Amino acid sequence: MQISSVRDTLRELRELGIENIANLHYQLSPDDLAAQTLALKQGCLSDSGALVVNTGEFTGRSPKDKFIVKDSITADTVNWNDFNLPFTPENFDRLYSKITRYFSGKSVWVRDCQACADPEYRVNIRVITETPWASLFAYNMFIRPAEEELETYEPDWTVIQAPGLHADPATDGTRQHNFAVVNFTQRMIIIGGSAYTGEIKKGVFTILNYLLPHTKGVLSMHCSANEGKNGDTAVFFGLSGTGKTTLSADPERKLIGDDEHGWTPSAIFNFEGGCYAKTIDLSEEKEPAIFHAIREGALLENTGFFPGTNTVNYADKTITENTRVSYPLHYISNAKEPSVGVTPKNIFFLTCDAYGVLPPISRLTPGQAMYQFISGYTAKVAGTEAGVTEPKSTFSACFGAPFLPLHPARYAQMLGEKMRRYNVNVWLINTGWTGGPYGTGNRIKLSFTRAMISAALKGELEKAAYKNHEVFGVAIPEAVPGVPAEMLDPRNTWADGNAYDKQAADLAAQFVKNFEKYAGKADPEILEAAPKV
Q1: Is 204 helix (H, G, I), strand (E, B) or coil?
Q2: Residues 127, 104: contact at Cβ < 8 Å?
Q3: Which pLDDT value is given to residue 389?
Q4: Which of these, 191, 255, 333, 335, is most buried using a 10 Å CB contact count?
Q5: How many Cβ atoms from other residues are within 10 Å of residue 315's Cβ?
């Protein structure tokens, strides 16, 4: 039995109800965890040294099977909706009893780690798993306390993941056999029936999205952040496919973090100690930082190999398109440690508008920023699906609706207050189409997008002349260094101006319809920022 000498972890597990275990593995090194995974035949090594595993039935999160216990703490504070699904305390207790009994006679891996790079807001998290590679994921993704910190370590929250335990929907109150349940009173997250490690990451993100705004006055954000040579911070919001990871991975700037951050009165800080990057179609040319981070200690999920080799084929979608890798933040050569930055000067909302309507860059007023933030818009194209050629709109409040326990207007109001207090520029960046929608127009060149972001960061757009978009009201600069002036106003790039007007009116109507569910808690400034239909 492998147990660290710094604490009586067995006793602490018994206090949780986890008893009679076969082996306890506490705070093992990445090398030990990888070796155990290989010995148990739960994974294999790629030729880069990374551990490769298959997460089984679930290769992504299951939002409809994630619940929050509805009790005296959450009943009137959580925004109950399609993502924040209520769960009774009685059903939680029943499932908790099942999950603790499940570990009897089994090996257990325990990882003590932390969230929040700013020590003032640090949260201690104990992650208990039934596989060594899930413990490696927790090592990679969360902040790693020093050995001496473990001597006085007390977990604030406990995460228990047992993929082999299946719930009984008839008696346990779940939708199906898998579940992820957050209990704010017990300070516990229990995960069963799914080995997808992203459930651990996003479970912790969910609790921080409640605790930090609600109890600490800290704005929690689903975003990436980086820092320039002069110490200026930039923040990038965006849904999958908008270029958030690509555009924040700038060799001229230090990476603060790629996914989850908090904004205090004086700083931006990363929630995590690692990165969980998509790897589908990854190449050294497109994403050199991520490509070179996939080495010994990294954990690849659901990737395939070229036949007869242990070389990963990043184009292989046989298992899933949602192939992933986790690795510690310091695997990125220009990562900033500690991952804390000053109050941002510029915020970028990234959208891949496949309709070709939105300008490639525009500046937002505080009201427009809050409206766009609550909307969380992008439009995707399923180009690989037979017969699917039309763009499809996606709206995800605050660019992270499934992880937001509070009402989206709460986060938007906090963002608006900070924008005004610190005089922050907010830019809407369209990384999608110009000259027409998908199938007619062209994708905006990455080099042009980088030039626009660079100009904003350098302050070159501060004194530029602007004109307002007739439908969306956003301010379009009339000139940006390194970018053809004719492409800045999207209507000018369409061969048929009337066709553009029709498409813009249609997209505006989609925005307005989507916003109806938030209008009741939005203030007049936000409502006035709606596009003109």
Answers
A1: helix
A2: no
A3: 60
A4: 191
A5: 13
Whether residue 164 contacts residue 130, with contact meaning beta carbons closer than 8 Å, is answered with: yes
Per-residue DSSP letter, 119: G
Can you tell me which residue has the tokens 């109150």? 173
The structure's pTM equals: 0.93
Angle, CA of 295, 296 and 300, to the nearest 5°: 65
Distance CA 180, CA 61 (A): 10
Beta bridge partners of 379: 393
Identity at 18, one-letter amino acid code: I
Q: State how far the Cα of 483 lies from the Cα of 42, in Å rounded to an integer.
A: 50
11 CB-contact burial (10 Å; exposed 0-12 / middle 13-18 / buried 19+): exposed
Cβ neighbors of 395 (< 8 A, separation 6 or more) are 375, 376, 377, 510, 514
Residues with active-site annotation: 61, 202, 222, 240, 244-245, 259, 324
Question: Distance between CA atoms of 350 and 238, rounded to whole angstroms?
Answer: 5
DSSP string, 435-476: SSSTTTSEEPPHHHHHHHHHHHHTTTTTT--EEE-TTT-PEE
Contact between 507 and 518 under an 8 Å Cβ cutoff? The reply is no
Query: Could you tell me which of 274, 6, 262, 18 has the C-alpha nearest to residue 128?
Result: 18
Task: Give the pair of three-digit tokens for residue 375.
Answer: 């909307």
In 234-304, alpha helices (H)? 244-248, 288-293
Q: Measured between alpha carbons, how far is 393 from 412 in angstroms, rounded to an integer?
A: 21
Sole residue written with tokens 């999920």 = 301
φ, ψ at 85 (rounded to 5°)? -95, 130
> Buried b / exposed e across 467-482, counting CB within 10 Å, b at 16+?
eebebbbbbbbeebee
Cβ neighbors of 172 (< 8 A, separation 6 or more) are 91, 94, 95, 98, 179
Contacts of 181 (CB under 8 A, 6+ apart): 66, 67, 68, 69, 87, 92, 95, 189, 190, 191
Place of tokens 């700013």: 118
Q: Using an 8 Å Cβ cutoff, are 451 and 372 in contact?
A: no
pLDDT at site 246: 83
Q: Which two tokens stand for residue 275?
A: 């990165």
pLDDT means per 10 residues, the chain with 533 residues, are 61 95 96 98 98 97 96 98 97 98 97 98 98 98 95 96 98 97 98 98 98 97 96 94 86 94 96 95 90 97 98 96 95 95 97 96 95 94 51 93 94 92 96 94 94 96 95 98 96 97 97 94 92 92
Q: Is 76 helix (H, G, I), strand (E, B) or coil?
A: coil
